[in-house]
Write a structure and sequence with these properties.
By secondary structure, the protein is an alpha/beta fold. The protein has eight helices and seven strands. It is 35% helix and 16% strand. Strand 3, helix 3 (85-98) and strand 4 (102-104) form a beta-alpha-beta unit.
Length: 236
Amino acid sequence: MTHQTRTYNVDIPEFPSPVTIAHPTGGSTHFVLVRHGRTDGNVRRVLVGRLDIPLDELGEKQAEAVGDYLATTHKPDIVISSPLIRAHNTARAIAARFDMPISFDEELMELNFGAYEGMSVEQIGELNPEFVATFGDVDHDRHWPEGERLSEFHDRVMGAFTRIASIYNNHTVVVVSHGGVLGSWSAQLLGTHPNDWTRFQIQNCSVTHVELGPSASTIHRFNDVDHLLDINASHQ
């Protein structure tokens, strides 16, 4: 039987955008979501999930810039980060602006790519072309060898943000995490398929502002990198 690849064509709305998912306790939490700064893995376009690699030179500058930007736009009550060093170092630059400690949450770590960590899609295709052939099918519940299954990853992401919102009701929370994590939650909030990763290309040190409300929620800002334009342009 020939497998037919299916894709979804769902338009991403303009922002601010209302979403139907409400606060788990009936309260309100503002999330300021930041992806970590650039790494060498991003430059080489390889899969970096649980590999613990640091920010590169541009990534360090991006982290400082997003820290400066948030200091003028938000007053967080807490900064929560993935424990992986690229997120930790980004969170450190942000937390320093507010003179506050960083809390770490392992559930905010990136998707575990297992045996294919550190490889490019092209390299994986040479080893396992049938596996790579599933990448265009958003319905396929891919299980990365020695790593995570996509459905379990998405459940982990939703569970993490639901738990954080429940704990920090009526707070503003900065979350520093990874492209896969933030893309998964954004897709689930908007009701699009979280496996369609091409639709949610979260940029390094971008800012997304999500307000979970008692009956409905709002994405006020999505994947904003205006604060990085000069820095990014200087490294092109």
